[in-house]
Amino acid sequence: MKNENKLIIERLTALWALNECGLGGFMHAFSSPFTGIVVGGISILLITLIAQHSKNLRSTLLKALTIVLLVKLSVSPHSPVTAYFAVSFQAFLGMVLYHMFSVNRFTIVLLGMITFLESALQKLLTLTIIYGESLWDAIEVYTTWISNQLSILELNLSAKALSIAFVTFYAFAGILVGFLIIRIIGLMQTVESSQINDIPIAIDSTSKHKTSKRGSKKVLLFWSITLLVIMLPLLFFKTEYGGWETALYLVARSLLIIGLWYIVLGPLLLKGLNKILSKRQNTYQSEIQSTLDLLPHLKFIIKYAWQDSKSLKGLNRMQHFLAKSIVYSIHFNPSKR
Fold it and tell me: What is the domain partition of the chain in residue ranges?
């Protein structure tokens, strides 16, 4: 039983690392604007399952988190430091909730809600730091224009109302994710695991440890589009906020802050994190290597599970897909390949 739990935790940790590294696995199946929500929900699911199978919850989750962060640094070295903060926040909050109140329906839903609230507030704080009051000025211009166009509906839109709606949406998404996790854990009991060892898994050895560099381009595109969206109303709408001076100030401010973050502060924080984690790297070297070796197998298993659930649709397919992915990954025997 002890060895079985150890194997389960190792496989769940490897899946968690795969999910955080964005190596095609879960991300491949959910390429959509809600990918961030899906990836966050999967992390909570895996943290919950690790907690369920842990005798010493605190040390087990801390070890799993350390391995995930070290693998992420190895495979996705260009990930922003905020990504490491997000996964660490989820793990430590899960550690506290599950240690104090055990793993149950209430704590699973609470973990989902709080982590998603933190994610929403972090996004708003980041945008405010980079773009300052101009962000909210632009939102006010847009909401006023929309309200005027839809005056027949007597809408009273404002930047404050939209930000509250945004945070509320994330809170409800977190609650929904919590209930979905409860259902997925139940579905895992119904999955037939024996067929996974009959699947011919072909692994391309050249794809094992490639690092991902696509993130930096997406980040640059995101900030550029956001800057353009904020500048448009300030330049072309006749408002008290407008003018070229405001627009030039906005460009200079955002470039300065983004430059400081990605060129100075971000790398410094990542270097500090790397220094802290490197103290543990030798301790967990065999587990880290084992996780890296498992990633190509797990990617194939996840793609197979997606095809295996193709008879289902929508949310129902997603739940069965996740349940099958986890069960197949746990029971997969690489020595038979």
Answer: 2-131+155-203+211-217+262-336
